Amino acid sequence: MTSILDPGQIPEIKGVTRFPGHPHSGGSSKIPTIIYYDRSGKVRAVGAEAEAEQVSEISQEENWIKAEWFKLHLRSKFGDHRDITQDIPPLPLNKTVVDVVADFLRYFFQCASSYIQVAHANGENLWEDLAGDIDFVLSHPNGWEGSEQSQLRKAALLAGLIPDTTAGHSRLSFVTEGEASLHFSVRNGLPDGVMNNGEGVIVVDAGGGTIDISSYCRTTKATKYTFEEIAIAKCHFHGSVFVTLLAQVFLKDFLDNSPFLDDIDHIVRTFDTTTKLRFKDANDPQYIKFGSTRDNDLTHNIRFGQLKLAGADVASFFRGSVDCIVKAVLEQHNSSKKPIAHVVFVGGFSASPWLISEVKASLKSSGLMLFVPESPVVSKLSYGMKSIILFNPIYPGHKAREGTVYNALDGSKRIPNSFEVVLAKDIQVSETKEFRSRPHALRYNHNQEKQHTVAIWGYRGSIPDPQWTDEDEGES
């Protein structure tokens, strides 16, 4: 996330939404925690680029080394969590966790730099003025202490985010996932009881590696949005990657003696990015579409490139995460110093319909109400309607199209090929936010229907304010 601080202006926090190789540039972006190194230890591909088909092919041909989920190697050595060393991929040889995290931070910094220079007015000059005066806030799981923060600080220095000076160190600060999740929840909507009646709230940040659970209530003695912690924050290693790990173990056994066992890595990746995300009913069979219609192995439930799994088996991959969350939430509820009625879910794993429905059902008897605040996305296209508008010679754009003006049946002069924008590009959108326009229709017969269906068009070209449908036609 980035924010430019201008004197007299309310700061607006914006997400960096353009990453190399990412298919959703301009919208909500989540970047995989993956780095490929060549045999000499040089970074060759990071994030979404590392998942491209050509990179996968080159990595095998040139024996690149893959590092993923490496943030989990920074975990605290203390606490009541289980040992996960055997569950997570090892670090590349001759690379420390600080080295790998530094490479990832450097990648993000470069992406943020490019985004600001392109997305902001006079961006290059702005970046040149501010590059040496940037404050960084890094989030980390609940329970991480001085040792883990020290390693993150070393990684930030190695990545070139800050210089190794007193002033440089002062520009780097840390926030726990619980604190960051609370800020997100306040910004995107908390229940009225929490905001106005002093009720406590449990915030569950269900992420890729960890489940971070914290409890807060709004103080009555301070300003409107001041909160205090009312139970000890906890961190558990039961994030969404562990669902994928369990799926991988199951699939290796399930596909034993299958000719498609060699495709296990691709099958697991496909499960991770498709089947896992949309799974919502244990009674329905689930499919992993990993191949073509020529790929068949009926003995192992593979037909036309799709592997069929029982819904109950897929549900079993989630069981550890569901049980962990339910147990942790109830512990927070019972140990809280204030009454708690709401549980707020944030984080990428919270998008799983199965996870949310199972946790909700398990918590029903406790009287806790589960709430998932909306996360706004940014419109990646300009959306609007094709229309015919009244000609006004005062407007230069109309004057330039005077040759296309015609007399309508009602006697008015009109211009065809107008594009009336309803939702402009790069605007934050949420499920409940409305965008309206007032189109006009000419009827030449009173008996014509009074209801009309209008097509909505999207413009994906480079014109900042598209006004005409016959400009850049191939991009609509």
Automatic annotation (TrEMBL):
Domain of life, source organism: Eukaryota
InterPro entries documented for this protein: ATPase_NBD (IPR043129)
Name of the protein: Uncharacterized protein
Disordered: annotated segments: 1-27
Phylogenetic classification of the source organism: Eukaryota, Fungi, Dikarya, Basidiomycota, Agaricomycotina
Provenance organism: Galerina marginata (strain CBS 339.88)
